Known about the structure:
Elements: E1 2-7, H1 12-20, H2 26-37, E2 41-46, H3 54-59, E3 66-69, H4 81-96, E4 99-103, H5 105-113, E5 117-126, E6 129-134, H6 136-139, E7 150-153, E8 156-163, E9 169-173, E10 181-186, E11 189-194, H7 202-211, H8 213-218, H9 226-242, H10 245-248, H11 250-257
Parallel strand pairs: 1-2, 1-3, 3-4, 4-11
Antiparallel strand pairs: 5-8, 6-7, 6-9, 9-10, 10-11
Helix pairs in contact: 4-5, 7-9
Amino acid sequence: MKKILIVEGNLREENESFSAVGIQTHTESLKDSLNYFTNELNFNVVNPSSDQNLDLVNKNLESYDGLIWGGSSLNIYNNTPEIKRQIEFMKECQKKVKNILAICWGMQVAVTAAGGEVKKADDSHIGIANEITLNDNGINHPLYKNKDLKFNSPAFNFDEVRTLPENAVCLASNRINKVQGLYFKINDTKIWGLQYHPEITYEKMISLIEFRKDKLIENRKVFKDEADIKRHVSFIKKEITVAKKEKRMIELKNWLNQLN
């Protein structure tokens, strides 16, 4: 059995609001997606923004074969106490865990903790990222073994990595985010980072869009009205008809395989 620590990036209140309307938390999505590939995983979960036992977790970090840090609705430049706790916890993880898969918010925390910079993006991904393209480094990296050179993926982000940490390598990009995939090593820790969400289904992304529709129209202003949202959801539903589950999640499989 491989021992995996999952780091929940959302605040407890956000997860409670998800559960109240029947949407999986990101941790629940991660567990389901990883279990698709193997039932030989032993999961522990920590929420560094909310949990009070971080000192105990820190002491046991070296016992994990790998760590996966998932998504969040937070914006790292807001620098709240909850966000600061996550950054500090990531710094500890980067000293003690050999293999980290950092997804979306997780990648942004990993980059920030290692000295890089994350800022608000000029554009956003709402439910889907189109035409993510591997560069030469990505083609040759084990993260993308058997992945198409160009692909679409579930994604939901308003921010992006602007400055890479020292010695980091960009592996994939698209029109909206220059850094869609990256790799870097810090101390003895290998970080594989993804700006998109291979672990989340398009169906869940549609549920998140509908759950957040008022904010997306009134606050984020990424849609004009509900009719605009319906058109976008129809576009995502078309992707569901052509997307292959295992191909969508192959980054997870590749990360698990290199733990052996």
